[in-house]
Amino acid sequence: MPRPRKRSRREITKVPRSEAMLPEFDRRAGPEGLVTRRQLRERGLSPGGHGPVAVLRCKACAYRPGQACTHPTRAWLYSVELARPKRVPTLAQEWALDRAMAARSTCPQCRRRYYFCLPLRTQGCCDPCARGYEPSPGTYCASTAPVTHRLAA
Question: What is the pLDDT of residues 93-121, one digit of tens each?
C-alpha cells in the first residue's frame, strides 16, 4: 500500500503594502476613471500601449490590509483618459482571416465547410468522412457554391 504524500505548503511572500510599485484598491473601492481590461473592451476602448496604473486587490486580500496583493487573481486597472478606441480591421484583413478560417474548417475530401475547426493535423478530414456517416445539416454550411463574401464588415 503506497504511503500518502505529504502536502507541501506554498511559500507565501509577504510584501508590505507601502513597498508595492502601483497603488492598490480594494474591490468596489476603485476611483473613477480607472477600469479593468474587460470594462475597457465593453466601452470599445483599448489600453493604447499604456501599462496599468493601479492594482485591484483580490477578494482574499481584503482581510490583509497591510500587505500587497500578490495573488494571480488580482486585476490591473487602466486609465480611461489614456485609453484609445479599438482598432477596426480593414476589409482585406477580414478577408484574410476568413480565408484562414475556411482552410481550418473545410474538409479536403467532401469540401463541406463546418462551423468549427476540423482535426486536419491528426485526422486529415472531418469526422463523418473518417467514420463513414452523414453529418447533421446544422454543423456545416448548406451551400456548396464557393462563398465570395462572408465577412462581418
Answer: 999 999 999 999 999 999 899 999 999 88
Distances in whole angstroms, Cα of residue 136 to Cα of each of 42, 118, 120: 35, 15, 19
C-alpha cell of residue 2: 503506497
Of the chain, the end-to-end C-alpha distance in Å amounts to 64
- Identify the pLDDT of residue 39: 93
| Per-residue model confidence (pLDDT) at position 80 | 94
Residue with the three cell numbers 473545410? 106
Residues in the chain with pLDDT values less than 50: none
Alpha-carbon span 14 to 9, nearest angstrom: 15
Question: Could you tell me the maximum CA-CA distance found in the chain, to the nearest angstrom?
Answer: 66
What's the rounded Cα separation, in Å, for the pair 119 and 132? 16
Residue where the block lists cell 479593468: 36
Say if residue 77 is exposed, middle or buried (CB neighbours under 10 Å; 0-12, 13-18, 19+). Answer: buried
pLDDT at 71: 72
The residue type found at 64 is: R
Q: What Rg do the C-alpha atoms of the chain give, in angstroms?
A: 25
Chain centroid to Cα 3, Å, comes to 41
